[in-house]
Amino acid sequence: MAELRYTGPAGSRVSSPPVKRGGGVDDGDGADPLVTGREEEDDGRRAHHFPSSRGGGWGRGRYRDWCSYLCSFLRAEDPMASPSRCAVVCWAFSVILCLSVVASLYLPSLWSRMNVPYLCTKVGTAIQCPSVKEPPSLWENPYSASTSWKACAERREDELSGVPGENETTGYLFVHAEGGLNQQRITICNGVAVAKILNATLILPELKQDQIWKDKTKFEDIFDVDHFINYLKNDVRIVREIPFNVPIREYVRNIPKHASAQFYIDNVLPRLKEKRMMSLKPFVDRLGYENVPPEINKLRCRVNYHAFKFLPDIETMSDKLAARMRNRTGGSNPYMALHLRFEKGMVGLSFCDFVGTREEKAMLAAYRKAEWPRRYMDGSHLWRQALQKRKAGRCPLEPSEIAVILRSMGYPKETQIYVASGQVYGGQNRMAPLRNMFPNLITKEELATKEELNHFRKHVTSLAALDFLVCLKSDVFVMTHGGNFAKLIIGARRYMGHRLKSIKPDKGLMAKSFGDPYMGWASFVEDVVITHQTRTGLPEETFPNYDIWENPLTPCMCKVSPHK
Predict the structure, then answer these.
(1) Tens digit of each residue's pLDDT (9 = 90 or more) over 417-445
(2) 520-531: per-residue pLDDT in tens?
(3) Which of 155, 171, 282, 455 has CB 3.0 to 4.6 Å from 276, enough for a Cys bridge?
(4) What is the largest CA-CA distance in the chain?
(5) In sequence order, what DSSP letters do the residues of 262-301 get, joined into one string?
(6) 346-362 pLDDT, tens digit each
(7) Residues 344, 368: contact at Cβ < 8 Å?
(8) Which residues cross the membrane (predicted)?
(9) Quick one: pLDDT at residue 137?
(10) CB contact set of 81 (below 8 Å; sequence gap of 6+)
């Protein structure tokens, strides 16, 4: 979608209307879901005006009588009229009559749809949408829907250690944790799991310098190392440093994505036993989900939700920020956390089309060409690709779009919103519609003093950890695009009991709704509410190739007996 529909003239952007969910459409027919109940009425009218010949109505005889009447009238005016001319006139009159009947049936409906008011109105940079009544479950998921599962991946105190002696493991394993904080976290979880599969000793992973943030952060700068090693002592042997100060020279580089446990046993274990020390690089998404034993997936959850513990100063500062969010209005109030992914790098990499002037679009095209020349090529194919991505829900939501979605869900203007984001592409102009509709947008820089944050500026990863924890503690978490940050938060909030609301917008449906020039506000609100009833972090059954980081339901959670 190149622009929100509330800024354009009627009919300027035509696309198929969204399918209504939850009623009004029979799955067995192809009726237009926005015109329910019209077919039967139309069929009745057609039966009245054009009855079939079987019922004694308009058969061939009646058609000939009709044509004879027209021909006699025509010959009265022009005695020289030929039979062929009579036939043409008869056919033309019949077509005109049919078109008139059809028009009388459908034009009123078309006219009413063309006069449906836009979703919202835009005055300058401000967006004004009709108010929506706040639903009862605005700030939390229904209690009845969030009590059927409980977390069960924690370590049991009576559990016997399955770790072999120091000299009895198959060797020392080292994994490279690259990328941002959350990608590194997932990598380490997978590293512990692979060490368990291979019965190896894991060397505490290093957090490699991130290419974007240029941050040189060590594991001990963010996480409690002693807690990490001690909590997993019955699962995997972990050492802090490479033994004997011997550099690792053996690498395994050909591990496929989402490899099975058997792949590691067949291909990595023999080399590890031979060399006694081995490094896995790269190691992002190099362990599958469905093709590993359930106890390995449970171990990954144990690492993610229990073994990882941020340093006390990070935890304390995040508690202060969360408390300040709740007390901004003088009382204890709920707050929303919004992960707004609309940085220049994300916008460029998405290769989607967004609202902007010609100059802005030219600058974005030049940026894409410089950063991703092989994907950009000559740029001629990008418009078609952008449309396909938007229809498939693969484009980041713009600040103005998420503003309209939140308002349609019932969140009022006074909502306190903590924004976790980098520098938004387009700056204040791009943020203006969201800020005008929800003026209480707050960042950590506005909640904390410079002195308080200076301690964390030594490591950019520490600032990311603060954002992570404040979002995790929020009453409602809203994501605008995919990524490890959002999936880890949604997964953790589910693991904590599904009561905390985590909204994952249906970007594909929203693209259709925003692009429909006839979509009225009431219909839009209905679509948003119905669609997102099951997209708020409630228990959701897993499926093949599911992602346990976003949905740890099985095997990391256990069904609660209804009798308890």
Answers:
(1) 999 999 999 999 999 999 999 999 999 99
(2) 899 999 999 999
(3) 171
(4) 117
(5) HHIIIIIHHHHHHHSEEEE-S-SS-S-STTS-HHHHHHHH
(6) 999 999 998 788 898 89
(7) no
(8) 88-111
(9) 86
(10) 71, 74, 75
Helix (H) or strand (E) holding 86: helix 83-114
Rounded distance, CA 181 to CA 195, Å?
21
Count Cα atoms within 13 angstroms, Cβ side, for 369.
10
User: Which residues 6+ apart lie within 8 Å of 390 measured at CB?
Assistant: 1, 352, 353, 511
Q: Give the amino acid at 214.
A: K
Q: Inform me whether the pLDDT recorded for 379 exceeds 70.
A: yes
Backbone angles phi, psi at 534, to 5 degrees: -110, 15
Q: 223 pLDDT band (50/70/90 cuts)?
A: very high
Contact residues for 512 (Cβ-Cβ < 8 A; gap 6+): 15, 16, 17, 18, 391
pLDDT, one tens digit per residue, over 449-486 is 999 999 998 888 999 999 999 999 999 999 999 999 99
Among the listed residues 397, 410, 414, the one whose alpha carbon sits nearest the alpha carbon of residue 338:
397
Separation in Å, CA 306 to CA 299, 492, 556: 10, 11, 12
pTM higher than 0.85? no
Instruction: Kindly state the tokens that stand for 77.
Output: 């005016």
Phi, psi of 411 (to 5 degrees): -75, 125
Chain center to CA of 412? 23
Which pLDDT does position 404 carry in this prediction?
95
Q: Are 323 and 448 in contact (CB under 8 A)?
A: no
E-strand stretches of 303-388: 336-339
Beta strands in 68-207 (DSSP E): 121-123, 126-128, 149-151, 172-177, 201-203, 206-207
536 and 530 Cβ atoms separated by less than 8 Å: no
Confirm or reject CATH 3.10.290.10 for domain 172-307, answering yes or no. Answer: no
Separation between Cα atoms, residue 492 and residue 488, nearest integer Å: 6
Question: Between these two residues, 300 and 533, which has the higher pLDDT value?
Answer: 300
Q: In whole angstroms, what is the distance from residue 465 CA to residue 205 CA?
A: 18
**pLDDT value, residue 34:** 29
> Where exactly are the structural domains of the chain?
172-307
